[in-house]
Amino acid sequence: MKGEAQLPAERNLYLAGGFKDSKKAVVVRQNTHARVEELESDQEEEDSRMFLHIGHAVRTLDVKRVVIWSMDSDLAAMCPRYCSMFGVNEMYFKTGTRQKNRYVPLHIITDELGPTMSAVLPSIHAFERM
């Protein structure tokens, strides 16, 4: 149909939250969809749930590069911990405005911080905000 976009056959689209069952997660493929129990969660914070999805993608789909798009500095502070934990080769944090975007290379920051500092960074950030 004209004007109707289709999901390419090689792509999967994962959806979570927003369903009547707030724990529900599904994968949508070109002609079907299925529940993904591994991604079902009662976490209300989107950032925590997002890292659940990133971990799933790294483990099951062999994802090596991740781009996170957010204006939330709390989320940015959490990224090095998960970049290190998941073993992602490249993790970028996209931020900015419609006119000016930046991609912060979190994998480089993670390498510079090292595993210990990357692990405690979210706690330091949370304490600083008090």
What does this structure look like?
With 130 residues, the chain is an alpha+beta fold. The chain folds into two domains: 1-42, no CATH class; 43-128, no CATH class. 41% of the residues lie in helices and 23% in strands. It contains three helices and six strands. A three-stranded antiparallel β-sheet has the order 1-2-3, with no helix packed on it. Strands 4-5-6 form a three-stranded mixed β-sheet. It is globular and about 45 Å long. The mean pLDDT is 84.
What's the topology here?
Elements: E1 13-16, E2 25-29, E3 32-35, H1 46-61, E4 65-69, H2 73-86, E5 90-96, E6 101-105, H3 106-128
Parallel strand pairs: 4-5
Antiparallel strand pairs: 1-2, 2-3, 5-6
Helix pairs in contact: 2-3
Characteristics:
23% strand; alpha+beta; 3 helices; 130 residues
